[in-house]
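hey all, quick one before standup. I had two proteins in the batch that finished overnight and I want to keep them in one place so we stop losing track of which output belongs to which input. First protein below, input sequence then structure tokens straight from the run.
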Amino acid sequence: MVRRRTVTTAIAAGLVFGLAACGGDSGSGGSGGGGGGGDAAGKVGVILPDTESSVRWENFDRPYLEEAFEEAGVEAVIQNAEGDAQRQATIAEQMITEGVTVLAIVNLDSASGAQIQEKATAEGVRTIDYDRLTLGGSAEYYVSFDNTEVGRLQGQGLAQCLGDEPANIAFLNGSPDDNNATLFSAGAHEVLDEMTQYTQVAEQAVPGWDNQEAATIFEQMYTQAGGNIQGVLAANDGLANSVIQILGRSNAAGANNVTGQDATVEGLQNILAGDQCMTVYKSIREEANALADLAVALINDEEAETTGTVEDSEGGREVPSVLLTPVSIFRDNVKDVVEDEFVTAEELCTGEFAAACTELGIQ
């Protein structure tokens, strides 16, 4: 299947990804002739972080990673840590024992991630940071999106939806032990701190990106502000939906402008319904393909193509990186996410959302 480029043309600028998406499974190698110039004699282990912080990990990352490694002709094993750092360490040890030559992790926190990478390196296993940089770690490569830019897009999006009138805004940030969440917040503040028409009345991080806890935190914010919050910088679509639920209980859903991230079906439907202002689309397919390319390069003991480096402030080093470009999604370009085959019209345009899809030409 040929990969669609409607939204991801900008994402792939300057990079050459030789992988096409086709079927595969997480426990077996493929025989395709994709990235890295054909089958590579190695085995890759990938450990995803959880199933609760975002639907992306199992619904998108896993199948796209399976496809990418299958096409590259690389045996890959993909498991999920289920939000448990000890479980992630145990999975890593098992993968090393079972002979992986490259280990890619989405760390649950930098300290535990660095320990996993240290043990892997001691066993001769090469490591890659997938999506989250492990501060103080030893990964040879890092692949993700420009996460500060994600935050900038969220800040710009919230400002676009609020307009120039005075407004009170709140920040509902991601997990404090996730370096990406720190970057999202920094990018958003870079934009919004300069806008004097907005008063920042509350800000709090959500441990573990837990959506239920996010609802509790925002309800407290909203109550303490006497309901006087006109905009919410929510770090992803899951947190945004928690905000929307609380606003709905207060009969304020649709009245507040809420940002998001990940372009999930739920987030896109909230945008169609007028309850969410925007989301940020990140092509997980491109991220998965980039990881496969990096893994093949390590297996073949070759230097991989990167876009630059990212500073590991705790490790005092620059990590060679592939950073992809995120895209803002508002109501008028929700269609782009469907055309890029990230979600389907059948998933998105159900029930009450069908009329909006027809209006926007989504089919």
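OK second protein, same deal, sequence then tokens:
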Amino acid sequence: MNKMIQYGFSVLFFMMIIVPSYAKDNMDKAISDAAKDITGNCKEEMIVAIDDFETPSKKMTMYIREELADSIFAEDSSVQIVTREHMDKIEKELRFQNSGVVSEKTMISVADRLGAQVIIFGKLEVYDKSYSLRVKMIDVKTGSYVFRKTYDFNESEKVKKLLGTSQIKRGYTTSVGLFAEVDKDSLDYFLPEIGLRIDYGQEVSIGLMIPVVYDFNEGKNELQKAKILGTLRCYFFPFNVDPSSGLYAEVQWGITLSFTTPQMWAGSETGVGAGFRFTVESVYIEPYVCYVYPSLYYFGISAGMRY
């Protein structure tokens, strides 16, 4: 049983470290990769014009333009960047339109008048829940392509918000995760716990917790507990505009099965607690504390996925 506890803590640690890195928004990574490739084709102190990318929304167009400019500057601060604001001052006919469609010839002409050596532009193509960012880089003097490449990424809540298609109120409703706790079962010692929890709901959710407890303080008569607890949770002050996140209060009630040698007995457990759920897309991590009867209190951390 002791090995099982250690294994459970190891799995939880893996989820806490590895899963958040998996959840990093890969649209930003696509833009960052594009910036690296662009600077790799730039000479020192080159003047680069960034035109607006063609996307389905104004917010997305502005985001790609600004994020790409920031990423290029972060890669090579010697590169001088001019964007659509500078271009509009010269060419009034290139007023921003939602589609952002302008001819390559016109863009090259404007970039040349700004003194830019290359111009960068492109298009975001949408395929159900995946996206392709097409990036093009043209030599202003020759009109030939210096660089062109496509960067693919998947849908995320951030992408949906920028495109104006976010359905967060009808978003994640179910979460499944592992948890590890330290239970103050008496005045003399703490008990380690690991388990599985499932929640359903958003602002208010119901759930199920199934922890397993290893009591190493019982000497020869090792005591192993298993609990089945129902939960009712209410969220306050959502984190990152996500209704099933942020500060929450929770009540618990259920049964405790205590295994002894040679007998087993059952009891009940009631508790009230609070915690804070951090979310990154479909991943959550939450620290929490709970006061319970007939035990004293426990604190722990949970991590898992949302669906």
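Flagging for whoever picks this up: The radius of gyration is 27 Å. Confidence is low (pLDDT under 50) at residues 17-24, 94-101.
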